[in-house]
Amino acid sequence: MIKFLFERDTWQEVWDSLSKNKLRSMLTMVGVWWGILLLIGLLGSARGLENSFNRLFGSFATNSVFVWGQNTSKPFKGFQEGKRVQLKLSDAKIVEENVEGIEFVVPRNQNQGLVVRNFLSGTFSINGDFPLLDKVQKKKLIHGRFINQNDIDNNKKVAVISEDIYKQLFEKDEEMIGQLVQINSMNFTVIGMFENGNVNMGPTSDIHIPFTTFQQIYNQGNQIGWMMITGKPEYDISQIEADSKLILKNLNHVHPEDNRAFGSFNLGKEFAKITGFLIGMQFLTWFVGIATLIAGVFAIGNILLITVKERTKEIGVRRALGATPFEIKRQIVVEAVFITLLAGFFGIITGGWILIGIDSAFGQGDEAVIVNASVSITVVFVALIILVILGTLIGLIPAFKATSIKPIDALREE
After folding, report:
1. Which residues of 12-29 are buried (b: 16+ CB within 10 A; e: fewer)?
2. Which residue range is the domain that position 266 belongs to?
3. The pTM is what?
C-alpha cells in the first residue's frame, strides 16, 4: 500500500479524474472546506475568549467568596430585628480555624479619604490590607513593592497607589517611590504603584495601606469591613460559604435562619458558570464542525458515485486486463481521501487567516475581548485524522460499487 502511494501512475490517475470536471471537483470540496473552516474559526474564537477570561482572573484566587455584615431580618436572643452586624478581626480568625477546606481568610477595611500632594488633591478609596492580599488578588505592580509584614508589625505609614492616582498627583515620568502623599492630613511614603487593569472584586481599590495603620488613623479598633475567604482547590466553595456564615451567625448572635444578616458574593460559583459556558461552547463547536464535515464528506461520496458510473467502461477495461477488485477499491479510496485532505488543508489555511484577522480586530489592547485566538497543533492533527477516517469510509461506498460490476457488463456500457 505504501509503495502504491508513491507511484506516479496513482497520482496521475487521481489528477485525471479531478481534471475531467474541474468545477464539479471544486464544488465537491466546498463542504469539507467549510466544515474545517468553521471548526478552526469557532475553536480559535473560543480559545480567545478563554484567554481573555484568564487574563482578567489569572492572578485572582477564583475559588473565593466575599462576606460582609448587613442588618438582621429576625429578632434573636434579645436583639431586635434590624440590628447592624459588624464583623471583627477575631471573627476572621475563628472562621479560618474552624471551617474545613479554607486556605486563606483575608480581613479588609476601606474608607474614603482626601489624598493631597503639593497643590494637587483628590478623594480616593483607602484600603487597609494585609500582605496576604497579594497572594489571593495579585497586584500587577509597575514599580516598587506591596505591603509586607514589617509594615504591619510597625504600623508604618506607607502606601501603594494606583496608576490613576499617580497620573493625578504626579508629573509625567516623575519618580514616585519614596515621595510623600497626605492621607487625611497624615504623611505616607509611597512604596509602590499598581496597574489599573487589575480585576477588583468588591469595592474599588485606589490606595493600599497597612491594616494596622488603617485601624489607628480611622479608629477602627477590632472592626473589619469584609473578609475574603479562599478555599482549597479540591473543596466546594459554596459549602465553605455556608459553613462560614453559620459560624459568623453564632459569633454575632444572629438567628440561624436569618439570610439577610450577611451579604456575600461567591466568585467561585460565578467562575464555574463561565467555565461551564466555555466548555459548552467548545463542545458545540466540535459538534457543529464535525457535523458539517460529515455533510461535506457525504457530498464527496455522492460525486464519486457519479464518477464511478461515468468510468464504468474504464473500470471494465482495467478488470479485463488483470486489475484485482482490491486495486480498483484502493484507487477510489485514495481519490476520496485526497479530495478530503486537500479541502481540509485549504480550510485550515483559511481558518488560520480568519483567526489572524479576529486577533487583529478584537485582540489588541487592555480591553481586548478575544485574546490570541488560536488552535493548538493537536486540534489540527485530530481534525486531519478525522478527515482521513471519514474520507476512507466514504470512499468505500463508490469503491464497492465499482467492483460490483462484472467486467463483461462494464465493457458493454455505453
Report:
1. eebeebbeeeeeebeebb
2. 64-271
3. 0.71
